[in-house]
Amino acid sequence: MSSEQLRESFLAFFEDHDHKRVPSSGLIPANDPTLLFANAGMNQFKDVFLGREQRAYRRACTSQKCVRAGGKHNDLDNVGYTARHHTFFEMLGNFSFGDYFKEEAIKLAWAFLTETLGIPKERLYVTVFEDDDEAENIWHQQERVPKDRIFRFGAKDNFWAMGDTGPCGPCSEIFFDFGPEASDEEDAYTGIANGLDRYMEIWNLVFMQFDRQPDGTLNPLPKPSVDTGMGLERVCAAVQGVLTNYDTDLFTDLIEPIAARLELHKPFSRSQTVGLRVIADHLRAISFLIADGVVPSNEGRGYVLRRIMRRAMRFGKQLGTDGPFLHELVASLVTKMGSAYPELIKEQPQIETLALVEERQFESTLNRGLPILEKYLEQLKAAGQSHIPGQVMFFLYGTHGFPIDLMEDIARDADLSLDHDDFRQLMEADAKASAADADFKADTVNPAYEKLQGQTRQTCHDGTEGSGVIRLILVDDETVTELKEHVLAQVVLDQTPFYAESGGQIGDRGFLKVGDSEFGVEHTTKVLDRWVVHHGILNSGSIRVGDSVQALVDAENRANIMKNHTATHLLHRALRDELGQHVRQAGSLVDGDKTRFDFTHFAPMSAEQIERVELAVNREILANHVLSIAHMNINDAKQAGAMALFGEKYAEEVRVIGIGDYSMELCGGTHVPSTGSIGSFKIISERGLASGIRRILGITGVAAFERFQHSEAILQEVSDRFALGREQIVESLARWQADKKALEKQIESLKIQAAKGGSGSEAIHEVGDFRVLVKAVEQVAGGALRQLADELMARIQRGVVLIGSKNDGQAQLIAKVKLEDGIIHAGQLVKAMAEVVGGSGGGRPDMAMAGGKQGEKIDDALTLGLSQIRALIRA
User: What's the CATH architecture for 748-874?
Assistant: First the structure.
């Protein structure tokens, strides 16, 4: 049975048993800051298990994309060396939300494994929690599993908790025996307890039946639930009769084209096998992460992706590849997994482009890091050191991404070793400080919101005025029944015309009025995806829970937000048309003043590109498209071509905003009725935000028109002041700039000639068998000072040149040394002289510069330099 058949048979089996087939969520957890990446099938159902979200079904099954790399759950360094570790994997799971429990969960799991997949029962073992008599009895009495194949383990292995408090319960795991070829350990209990590869866990059934209290008490849940997870890679190995996950078709169908690209032939050596496995595994993680909106960067998820990519590239280099290769392998993965995950097909160009860009950057990293490492090696050998300190390793690895094993190879050639212990301590300290992948636990939400029944009915798309009843008032996170004047508070209504911040659009502001009492709403948010919270201050009077209020949104601010939001949709499409289909939204902020749009792209936009994008948006504004709004199933919307924001959480039914034939996006925000209402659009800046991420700021309406007017006024002023036609301004400025540079060069040359010709003080001193030329000048700096030092050294041919220049009260010093024995070090000499003028500096043994704030002490600094030279010669 192929992996494709196995995945489908699992989902079809549970569909036949009344489970809803739910698509995998993205790898970027939606609205969940506790997770770096999706790492389990239940992640997308977290709020359902916590009782915060209701679904139309009580049974579900999924094949979930997962990544474990970075933060606490980090398998990266083991990948390739073990039979089971992966960065990317698929978790098959079936779930019950207060429907069936242990009896049916065990029955379904056993039936699927032994009947649908045909796995022999004698190759399966079961573990249960040590106190879970119920589960053991079901396994033994219902499924006829012999008691000598059922083992009890403690809470460490067989009890699952969502956090320190909240839903938890025992779990039961199913293990597959790979036989004596995997290990000669015949005792299954010992093999399972010691984690031997022969006995591998293939399915974990979690029975959420308790609610853990702060004091540790376990209270039974009124509706127990089930969460199961079975690794597709592992069960494939069991079904296909191979000893490692890498021998399943999930990986062999990738390893074969990788080996062909690298010109490797069977039988592979151990190092080749490891390298091929690493590249195959990492290719999966890289492709799925990019397809889900992650781009390489130096922080967070992007940093994890970059590490995975560079690890794959490094193994490629070790296997003999020269130049970029990863981007050429993406097609083989798309062929293998594209039918199950269509996003791979859609995002293939983006994946290939990003891989190629990152490979080229890594080449640059190596070219940049090697000279630094070689410099350290030279210094360490000169100092008689035998190893590279962990701090140096940490700097090269963390700052420049320089691979540790490549460091080790280079160090070995220099007869040096690496201080791995020191490096490990630094890495562990850094991981503790920056771990982003926290334990899976419930977010902290004020209990008052959870106790409140119902939800806020939002009427934001019906207008800017409405009425409602106050359901809740919070002051300093405490509930109150009455709010007094001039007190900050959070107010919840049963219905509201205020838009709650989401999808990049800022929440509305305005007023809530009860008679003569007025509550000023500064911003609006959403809690538990149910309640709209109005944040603000009571300006006058008092309000109470139960009061009927008049809700008034700031209509002018809302209108500006609508213009900016619709313009953002137009901008997104225009950028994709201009720069390529790899462009996607990476974040946004839409408020009444501007639209801020972050997008994936790998280079600064040229002025011409910005101009064309701006023009494209304004053309669509002038076309005055009437916006269409439709509500449809999310899968139907995506198939129709609607674009979704990565990382955003969508319901099964979504709102689709269409702008003619030009744009179609999933969006819950507020928009203008037609594009002509936007008026005009102007890009005011474009800059890099992170590696592969650009940011555009844009304005619309009156603000854009005022910007055009301001630019027009500046052009007219320049034209009038310098008596130039507008078409002459750029050419004239370029000519003036060239003339200015030429004059500056002439001035520098004259300064040097004046200094050489006797301007300032100059003295030549005989010290030992060489001469020291000491000179003080004024207004000679930078390159001119270096040129003067070179010309003065040419005059004495051998020795030391010391120059001090006073420039607008500041001091600049330079030392140039031309001696054979290395007794005089220019950098050390200048460092000492710089202290006299209140500055610092240094440099090479043959030339060094420094600066300081006290130009009046130049003569003292030069005197010190000369005396130090004499002292060194006498010594």
Answer: Roll (3.10)
Largest CA distance in the chain: 108
Q: CA neighbours within 13 Å on the CB side: how many for 578?
A: 22
The answer to whether 223 and 207 have CB atoms below 8 angstroms apart is no
Q: Which residues contact 777 (CB under 8 A, 6 or more apart)?
A: 751, 755, 759, 760, 788, 803, 804, 805, 806
Residue 257 CB contacts under 8 Å (≥ 6 apart), including other chains: 329, 332
Pairing of strands 387-388, 417-418: parallel
pLDDT in tens, 274-313: 999 999 999 999 999 999 888 888 778 888 898 899 889 9
Q: Which CATH superfamily groups domain 3-247? A: Bira Bifunctional Protein; Domain 2 (3.30.930.10)
Q: Angle at CA 284, nearest 5°, toward 282 and 289?
A: 95
Quote the tokens at residue 497.
Answer: 């015309």
Whole-angstrom CA distances from 52 to 49, 386, 452 are 8, 60, 11
Cβ proximity of 465 and 551 under 8 Å: yes
Residue 452, sorted as left (phi over 0), alpha (psi -120 to 50) or beta, turns out to be beta
Model confidence pLDDT, tens digit, residues 422-466: 888 888 777 665 554 434 444 568 889 988 999 999 999 999 999
> Class of the 558-712 domain?
alpha beta
**C-alpha 294 chain-centroid distance:** 6
Least confident range of 128-132, 402-406, 558-562, 624-628? 402-406
Edge-to-edge strand order for the sheet containing 627-633? 627-633, 653-659, 663-666
- Can you list the positions of beta strands (E) in 569-624? 585-590, 595-600
Return the number of other C-beta atoms located less than 10 Å from residue 77's C-beta: 10
Which of 565, 583, 671, 566 is CA-nearest to residue 621?
566
Q: What's the confidence (pLDDT) of residue 441?
A: 43
pLDDT (0 to 100) of residue 732: 86
Q: Give 182: exposed, middle or buried? Use CB within 10 Å, 0-12, 13-18, 19+.
A: middle
Q: Measure Cα distances from 345 to 257, 291, 331, 337, 339 in Å.
A: 18, 9, 9, 9, 8
Question: Phi, psi (5° rounding) for residue 776?
Answer: -115, 130
Contact 441, 166 (CB under 8 A): yes
**CA 399/CA 678 separation, integer angstroms:** 45
Of 190-194, 321-325, 371-375, the one with minimum mean pLDDT is: 371-375
Chain Cα centroid distance, residue 538: 40
* Tokens encoding 465: 């005025």
Query: Is the sign of the CA dihedral 342, 344, 349, 354 positive or negative?
Result: positive
Domain ranges for the chain, please list them.
Answer: 3-247, 270-434, 447-553, 558-712, 748-874
Fold of 447-553: Elongation Factor Tu (Ef-tu); domain 3 (2.40.30)
CA distance 293 to 299: 15
Supply φ then ψ for residue 800, to 5 degrees.
-135, 135
Residues 6+ apart with CB under 8 A from 33: 443
